[in-house]
Amino acid sequence: MNRASPLEAKFALLWRRLRGPALVREHRFAPPRRWRFDFAHPASRIAIELEGGVWNRGRHNRPRGFIADCEKYSAAALAGWTVVRLTRGDINTRRVEQIIAAMNGRGA
C-alpha cells in the first residue's frame, strides 16, 4: 500500500475525529481489474474517492485520466457501489458527517 497523500491524511484525520466506522484503504473492488477505491466501507458499499489535482491539471482531469475514471466509476455503480467523490474543499465536518450517516443508515 502506498503512503498516504496529504489529501488522504487530511481526510483520515477528520474521519477519526468524527468517529466514522472503520474503512478499508486502497480497497480493490473489481478483480481481476486493478481498480481501487481510496477508502471503502464494504458493509454499506460506499466508497470514497479523493480527487486531487483539480486546479493543477492532475491525472484525473486530463482526457485519458478522466476517461479511465468514468470507466471505473461506472463499473463500481453497476456492481452496487455508491462512490462519493471529494475534492480538498469537500473534506469538512458537514460533508464527512453526511457520509457517516449514510453508512450508518446502510447497517454500518
Please explain how this structure is put together.
By secondary structure, the protein is an alpha+beta fold. The chain has a single domain (19-105), classed as Endonuclease, Chain A, CATH 3.40.960. It contains three helices and four strands. It has helices spanning 6-17, 63-78, 93-105; strands at 24-28, 36-41, 46-50, 82-86. The model has no long low-confidence stretch (mean pLDDT 89).
Task: Tell me what the CATH architecture is.
Answer: 3-Layer(aba) Sandwich
Kindly identify the CATH topology: Endonuclease, Chain A
Q: CATH homologous superfamily - what is it?
A: VSR Endonuclease
% residues in beta strands: 15-25%
**Overall 3D geometry?**
globular
- Number of separate strands: 4
The main pleated sheet reads as: 4 strands, mixed
- How confident overall, as mean pLDDT? 89
The tally of structural domains comes to 1
Strand arrangement within the widest β-sheet reads 1-2-3-4
Number of distinct helices: 3
The H/E string reads HEEEHEH
Our Rg estimate from Cα atoms comes to: 14 Å
Which structural category do the helix and sheet elements fall into?
A: alpha+beta
CATH C-level label: Alpha Beta
Distance between the termini: 24 Å
Residue share in helix? 25-40%
Residue runs with pLDDT of under 50 for 5 or more positions: none
In short:
The chain is of the alpha+beta class. It has three helices and four strands.
